[in-house]
Amino acid sequence: MNSRHRPSRRPKSLRERPDAGAPRARLAPRPLVPDAGQPIPAVFLRAPTHYPLIYRKRIRRVDDQARPGDLVAVYSESESGNSPELIGYGYYNPRSEIVVRLLRWGPQLPDADFWDATLAQAVRLRRDVLRLDEVTTAYRVVHAEADGVPGLVVDRLADTLSAEVFSLGMYQRCGEILARLARLCGAQHTLIQAGPQVLAHEGFTASPRPSEGMPASVVVEEFGTRFRVQFEAGHKTGFFCDQRDNRRQLASLCRGRSVLDLCCYTGGFAIQALRLGQAAEVTGVELDEEPLRLARANAALNRVHPRFVQADVFPFMRDMLRGGRQYDVVVLDPPKLIRSRAEIDSGSRKYFDLNRLAMQLVRPGGILLTCTCSGLMPRETFLRIIYAAARQARTPGEDSSADAVPGPARTLQVLAQTGAAPDHPVAARCPETEYLQAVWACLG
């Protein structure tokens, strides 16, 4: 066993863990590189694993000195009595179902050289391989497990690094990670925010931590189109970089056509359809007032004139169907509808209903781009939902009620399946890092 692991005299089961003290103490910054003399608690698994997210049911026992947020050594311990095998190191949180997020595999500790190499590789991929600086000032620099930094995503938005944190251990060390990243990227400001589900999943919550002098907003460019990012009002890190290439691809299909952008948020697809795509007319629909205000400001930045409507997309689509309205191109990009396994059934029904209505708004021969960012939904399940929705879709005007029994099914041809832009890579060890699905279809 590693010389820095000091075995406990009374290892406790995971469910016997004591409370680790006040929330404020749990959130205090901790050094990214462990002190040379610091003992490393151990976590023992029931079997070896190649998966970086270690759930509660996989754990046999835990050293009793392990505390929330600790760096722990992870061992595989068989019932045969053989010596435990060191798997690697990760961050520990007994309050989470993901008890350990593995950071480094093998016997070497995640030291300063490890962090320098990991972060430099992440930056090199975006700058030297993908050459994103040539086409945009908004891209993902760190994509959690896919870049070897579990529980953390970081977007570069102009000269600001905006981070969203999903694990307690990473939150405690995020300040130093961002400082190292800022030096590599030449960024001037940083923002740290806890993810929307960390209270339920990780047992803590925290206010945003902006660096001193950080601006309230920045303007970024994407293929020459400008977008204002409002950090305080923004979802996630402030801007959805993952749809960058899909926005450009959609724009290439819009020349002289009518476009409907459902759940348009701050207007990304709608504005690119006009500025890059030279669409004849564009309508964007969004329920929330603040993103819609920013969408209008983004349109003004680019001197384009989409029509924006504040509405729930369900009644909006039904109103359009009752009026017999159709569009040449329809984009359906809803927010995440499945946040936990308990929501899979209800979220799947919502995706079905959204797609069934959206398909009926596509003019025969037109294009539908339909998306899901629910990582818990497998690609084959999303496709089955789309196929089932197509079987029930019908042409407006056949009946006065949008919810009437459907007539003959419309034909649907899947043209392509895409995902997030390549600055959101997928880790072979962690397929969940492929969370965004985009299906391009032609409706007959």
Polypeptide structure, described:
The protein is an alpha/beta fold and 444 residues long. The protein folds into three domains: 14-105, PUA domain (Archaeosine Trna-guanine Transglycosylase, Chain: A, domain 4, Roll), CATH 2.30.130.10; 112-218, Transcription Regulator spoIIAA, CATH 3.30.750.80; 240-443, Rossmann fold. It has ten helices and 20 strands. It has helices spanning 23-26, 112-129, 168-185, 198-202, 244-251, 268-275, 289-301, 313-322, 344-360, 379-392, and strands at residues 42-45, 53-55, 59-62, 71-76, 85-92, 98-105, 138-143, 152-157, 160-165, 189-194, 209-210, 217-222, 225-230, 258-262, 281-286, 307-310, 327-332, 362-372, 412-418, 437-443. A seven-stranded mixed beta sheet has the order 16-15-14-17-18-20-19, with helices on both faces. Strands 2-6-5-4-1-3 form a six-stranded mixed beta sheet. Strand 17 (327-332), helix 9 and strand 18 (362-372) form a beta-alpha-beta unit. Helix 5 crosses helix 6 (268-275) and helix 9 (344-360) crosses helix 10. It starts with 22 loop residues before the first helix and ends with a strand. Residues 1-22 have low confidence and may be disordered.
List the helices and strands and how they pair.
Blueprint: H1 23-26, E1 42-45, E2 53-55, E3 59-62, E4 71-76, E5 85-92, E6 98-105, H2 112-129, E7 138-143, E8 152-157, E9 160-165, H3 168-185, E10 189-194, H4 198-202, E11 209-210, E12 217-222, E13 225-230, H5 244-251, E14 258-262, H6 268-275, E15 281-286, H7 289-301, E16 307-310, H8 313-322, E17 327-332, H9 344-360, E18 362-372, H10 379-392, E19 412-418, E20 437-443
Parallel strand pairs: 1-4, 9-10, 14-15, 14-17, 15-16, 17-18
Antiparallel strand pairs: 1-3, 2-6, 4-5, 5-6, 7-8, 8-9, 10-11, 12-13, 18-20, 19-20
Helix pairs in contact: 2-3, 5-6, 8-9, 9-10
